[in-house]
Q: What sequence folds into this?
């Protein structure tokens, strides 16, 4: 079977075991691996590296597209394999290692990693490990369910290891659109005018002589846990649909809205599913990770086309989609993350960006990454790429967490990933605040009235009143600004502080 | 003389006094005025409006390119003329009015104002007031020393008032390149591949029937105070030149570096002047405001070409340049601020962006706008447009202010305009920190060692040590994070707190 998948005969002699392939990777090397949102990651070579690291000291600097699936990031951290890790992760074990200082983590805008490789401010990978569904007659690599940074890794690494996943649907071939901007000066535009434009090649063009190993594997796509919509996420979706309806009524949006980007996770997925019964049609996505909701909207005939850089599905949805990929192939394109998240394209298309906030504050600043201002959760991912350049930059979150011990709306966020200048709309299950064209104090009024949980509303209003008494364009009581977070650290709840302000 | 300047005869009957023209502007209107960095602003109609507002209640919502010159913003605030003001200002009197809540100010990325007018999330101006050097045979408007948002204001306003400034050099004609992106969907790329590319028209095309008034004036360009380089700014420039030399040595930059953007003000201007004697050649600028340094570099034969959206000069430099504009005309282009600051073009060209920070913190977050976290200084201006999308995002500041009472390097900034994700290089007179590819704790070490003033170094190190003891990816002691600012408020100096941490 793998002869149809490796169509350049001379490469057949490169087939070897994962352990043999992993031997190309030495201590201290920088390794670029495929994988984005747990999709399209190399599955065999990382396990072989983990095995080796458990025997002998072995540390690598690992760059990926984004998060890896199957707990690989955690296993690598546990085995002591990771010296440096970038640009994103989402694994509880790795997260703990980062926060304890055992792994150095660089949290980056996902569109920028390749720019930094290209301009030499980050070292190019010594070895790239790329999952593929096929190798073409020219020796070019056809990725599986994500593109991520794989094209750049394969082109810039000195050596390339291909993991040929025989379990991947052959219908992935043709779904990718590989385009990378040229170097500078003389770089031209990225010629995407519509989300369904194809501007590149179907495979990653490299010199096949760089392929030093091909590892066969037969491991199904990772399945991502996805919580069903609940009362709060449904309310968030309803507020957003009502807002879109109002925008259509005022002719600021048409019935097909604008190209949609939706962040990763259960809340964003539930919000997107809220569009199934909404009075919009011919929707398109220009997004990063395509989740279950993409396919539910495609199946419902609501979504015409989806552009992304990976497909990350829950178990049941994955079975349905990956088992019938031919049904979807002509309505999907997967691009390098540099292109799916490129400021140029996002600004040109006028994307509606919907991402999840960890917390936001009175004035619309958003924390997406740091619990309590200090402990990393996952990373900024693509949220900044989209929020900064979107037509509408929307952040959603439930208004409280941990049974009300935490308010997601606070006087001052403990870490800023998206500034007041980059946030248009905030939504909780309580309601929606449209901050466009408003000054800081006007935003605060709206956020207090519309977004904060009733248990925290009076406390936030008291803070704001006390702050306004001190004057300024963006009033704060500096000695109280972080008091909710401090009380959470000290007492396990923000509410103590809330009552005392 | 004005007959050569108003070349569409039918418009001659529209000539009237400033007071007559100002009568087109009614209470409650939104007015779009030319003006950017104190250049190219309307000079007569605003004075007539101020006069009226002193007699009768008159309030307008004022949108400009950026700051106005000649104290106009302050006079308008004092006369109670301003209800809402956006997207930038730099006037001490207006600043006070904003911080005291008498004027509502909306502080915006300068590239985004027109997008929000276009998509309907801000109201279009009722009346536009545009300074011009000429009106063409077609009735199109030729701006003076800035383009700013004038093209969009003139095209979207219902009525247009032109202030024909007879004191402006006729050599401004031909220097402008007016290009505006189309609406969506179907918007195409902005076809600038090189900073000297011309992609638009030389005048602002509008239906001349919209021109309701032409006011003749004869007021010279505003002169902007510009402090000469001092010991500290020279040291900042030296650190930056040494850094660029190292980048050239490592072949990450060529001898002509990359297109340069430099923020407004004496520090950034002095840094730019530091390139006059540096071993680089054939420099180009793709910037926003072109200041004295642009012309000093042009005169020195160091700079080949400069693209901007306004020319803002000191008195002596203005006399030299505006009196000999023909000498410079073929090496300059002035564009709408949407284009000079456009993420698409900045990212494509790979701009080196040098902007001034009000303060920055241990981890590289930058505050550009808010004194003490609460009181607006000027606004974010174009710094975010450039910093986010630049090849190299550089922020400069002196390490201390007010004779050492203030450290510009703090544990946690009191307001974030540019997040850790968007800042590559920090420079003070003490030294330079290259943050590229570093994790938060690595950045902190470098900033403490290289950038902070010796008077604050041990205090910042103590804070960092205490923070690290609490763990986390980005360690902080939340109860002390803003203590330096609090002590400044309470005692007039950060040093008390610095000593006690």
A:
């Amino acid at each position: 079977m793998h002869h149809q998948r490796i169509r350049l005969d001379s490469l057949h002699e490169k087939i070897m075991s994962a352990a043999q392939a992993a031997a190309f990777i030495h201590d201290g090397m920088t390794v670029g691996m495929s994988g984005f949102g747990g999709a399209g990651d190399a599955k065999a070579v990382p396990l072989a590296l983990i095995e080796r690291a458990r025997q002998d000291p072995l540390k690598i600097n690992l760059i990926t597209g984004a998060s890896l699936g199957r707990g690989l990031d955690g296993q690598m951290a546990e085995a002591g394999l990771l010296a440096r890790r970038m640009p994103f992760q989402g694994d509880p074990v790795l997260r703990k290692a980062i926060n304890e200082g055992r792994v150095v983590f660089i949290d980056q805008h996902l569109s920028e990693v390749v720019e930094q490789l290209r301009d030499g401010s980050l070292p190019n990978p010594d070895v790239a490990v790329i999952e593929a569904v096929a190798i073409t007659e020219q020796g070019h690599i056809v990725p599986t369910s994500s593109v991520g940074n794989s094209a750049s890794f394969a082109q810039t690494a000195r050596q390339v290891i291909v993991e040929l996943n025989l379990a991947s649907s052959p219908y992935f071939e043709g779904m990718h659109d590989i385009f990378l901007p040229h170097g500078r000066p003389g770089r031209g535009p990225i010629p995407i005018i519509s989300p369904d434009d194809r501007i590149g090649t179907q495979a990653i063009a490299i010199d096949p002589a760089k392929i030093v190993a091909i590892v066969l594997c037969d491991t199904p796509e990772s399945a991502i846990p996805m919580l069903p919509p609940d009362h709060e996420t449904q309310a968030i979706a309803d507020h957003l649909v009502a807002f879109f309806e109002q925008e259509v009524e005022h002719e600021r949006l048409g019935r097909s809205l604008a190209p949609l980007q939706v962040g990763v996770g259960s809340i964003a997925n539930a919000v997107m599913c809220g569009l199934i019964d909404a009075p919009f049609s011919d929707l398109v996505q220009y997004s990063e990770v395509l989740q279950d909701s993409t396919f539910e909207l495609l199946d419902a005939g609501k979504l015409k086309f989806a552009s992304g850089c990976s497909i990350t599905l829950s178990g049941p949805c994955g079975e349905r989609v990956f088992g019938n990929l031919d049904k979807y192939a002509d309505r999907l394109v997967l691009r390098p993350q540099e292109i799916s998240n490129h400021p140029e394209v996002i600004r040109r298309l006028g994307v509606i960006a919907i991402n999840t906030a960890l917390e936001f504050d009175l004035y619309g600043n958003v924390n997406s990454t740091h619990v309590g201002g200090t402990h990393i959760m996952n990373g900024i991912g693509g949220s900044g790429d989209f929020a900064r350049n979107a037509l509408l930059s929307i952040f959603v979150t439930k208004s409280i967490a941990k049974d009300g011990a935490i308010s997601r709306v606070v006087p001052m966020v403990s870490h800023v990933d998206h500034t007041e200048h980059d946030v248009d709309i905030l939504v909780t299950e309580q309601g929606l605040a449209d901050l466009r064209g408003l000054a800081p104090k006007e935003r605060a009024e709206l956020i207090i009235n519309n977004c904060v949980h009733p248990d925290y509303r009076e406390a936030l209003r008291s803070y704001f009143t006390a702050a306004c008494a001190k004057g300024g364009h963006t009033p704060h009581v500096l000695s109280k600004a972080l008091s909710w977070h401090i009380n959470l650290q000290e007492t396990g709840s923000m509410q103590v502080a809330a009552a005392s302000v």
About this structure: The radius of gyration of chain B is 23 Å. The domain at 231-455 of chain B is CATH 3.40.1080.10 (Glutaconate Coenzyme A-transferase). Chain B touches chain A through 84 residues (CB under 8 Å). Chain B has two domains: 2-217, 231-455.
